[in-house]
Specification:
The complex is a heterodimer of chains A (about 150) and B (about 575). Chain A has about 150 residues and is of the alpha/beta class. Chain A has six helices and five strands; from the N terminus they run αβαβαβαβαβα. Classes of the chains: A alpha/beta (about 150), B alpha/beta (about 575).
Amino acid sequence: MDDKLGKGTSLDGLPRSRPIRVLVAKPGLDGHDRGAKVVARALRDAGMEVIYTGLRQTPELIAEAALDEDVDVVGLSSLSGAHRALFPRVVEELRRRGLDDVVVIGGGIIPAGDVPALLEAGVAAIFGPGSSTSAIAEFVRKAVPTSSGGQ
Amino acid sequence: MTDEKETGPRAAAREARERWESETLGKTLARFPEREQRFETMSGLERGRLYAPDDLEASGHDYLRDEGFPGEFPYTRGIQPTMFRGRLWTMRQYAGFGSAAETNRRFRYLLEQGQTGLSVAFDLPTQIGYDSDDPLAAGEVGKVGVAIDSLADLEVLFDGIPLADVSTSMTINSPAAVLLAMYAVLAEKQGAPLDKLSGTVQNDILKEYVARGTYIFPPAPSMRLVTDLFAYCAERLPAWNSISISGYHIREAGSTAVQEVAFTLANGVAYVKAAMEAGLDIDAFGPRLSFFFNSHIDFLEEVAKFRAARRLWARLMRDRFGAKDPRSWMLRFHTQTAGSSLTAQQPLNNVVRTTLEALAAVLGGTQSLHTNSYDEALSLPTEEAVRVALRTQQIIGHESGVADTVDPLGGSYLIESLTDRIEAGALRYIEEIDRLGGAVAAIEKGFIQREIEDSAYRHQRLVEEGKRTVVGVNAYEITGEKLPSLLEVDQEVGRRQRELLAGVKSRRDQVAVRARLDALRGAATSPGEPLMPRIVEAVREYATLGEICGVLREVFGEYTPSVGL
């Protein structure tokens, strides 16, 4: 029942009042977490509720955490080249758990040639090196539905 | 104390400066204000308008005590008396991707191009002690480095490369003992004498907890593995660097220059104490400790940083730990230019950044150097990009002339002032870490991680607020730029590596492998028992990295960091 309404809507159909909830996750074995931590902190400073998973998460663990934490957005970071294999699997695991409207974004060292396939697989946007955290926050605000009219 | 009227050249210099400030400078400032109220280095240290003799005098700088002569304590001006007049630094490009065979081809290419040492990048499963067929290795095999599962892969990696004639650096930490054991067994097979083997294993677990992330075991057994390797090298591989205490990744994670020196040397202090507690003589392992620093884009601050690190380590080793052998006092270091200073936008600009950073490393007296390739904010480097990076070093070494005089910036009022301030700042941090119980305790409390994260966030804010300019990122941007062609790592490498591994496992003597792994388990469960000899015996029978680390995981457990933001 609840998921049919969408996360942007409260049960009485009025616009959401809770802050946007974001899970920042590091899939795979990559240990570069400077970007993930900076983005997490910037989104928190932008008024969102942010949970950081820490390193070495499998797609299953990330999807479970997204479910448990009831997040609107999952932000993935990888600088090891494993994004091609891992980002689509995170999307799959989220969908398998019925989290169809969770927005997935990604960042890291991701060659431009890889981006179309990731978007095709259901990643909403890729933010490469040099992206500003305010642009990421703005994207998240627009991507997460904020009123029932958006459904 | 300054009440008494001073006379002589010093007083004259100070008076002259005051006159210059009030007359010449004052007039200009009145008409043309400066660009900033306060100029700062990347680390937030104040960058003064002008440095003159009276600045050094005011801070009590003493030439003989604080600079001295190259090749002598405190080594501020360099660890050798002739530095690059004798021999240029070792040009050592970090390389590795895909399979051992592919990386072997890149190594041979680099040696043909005039590179003078090898540096192996391992893939993440290897660095975290998993074989290529482990489910956790999915998608990661051969990606950021070469996949090594057993001695068989190392044989292919160094095919046609005589280990007696090259120096090899291996960026390997938690499983350092396993890779060093494989290297030693391969050297034996090639007939290379072990006491002549030259190279380095990174073996620096503490910075993995704070910055790089390829830890396996908790701190206590990890420190046992580190000092066990020190003991093995002291006995069997006397020319091998048993550790490379690394600030590089601390800096990449966002620290300042002062924090880089401080946290690296604080980790060094922790290793020295652990080895002494394990009963090793400081002068038996001290000369084989080596370091690894970042060279970032703030040129003058970086030159000063290297000099400050050298002086501070010499003082710590001699005065705090009582090392007697001058080789224990010398901070020898490798440098890599700053990956995090590279931009994905207008990538050719990175050639210029890397040149400045490489120049700072040379002027700072590095022993070896890796220059990044211009395309590394986008992907692993192509052969062409790697060649330009290596040529950058060759141009600095052979054309620019900077290598022909020892410590050419020594005596610069600014450089000496910055060197003094960086050393003092780093020492304050080390004292604070001592009060927290040392580097291991400071890491467990999250102190070092928080300090680095705060600096990283501060840098990001400054860039986004436009207070720190990054050309091509927040200024001088262009649209619709054409990106360079990138290196494609074969996506099939994982499958092929799993087949190779299955082949190795089917051909080896399974009974012998079991016996060697059991012997290792026995040694690991007995505190104080040496581990390296058992690991050497296991790799000789083609026990895999994952099997050996698996045994150690059973005995030692795994490290789980506390996650906080």
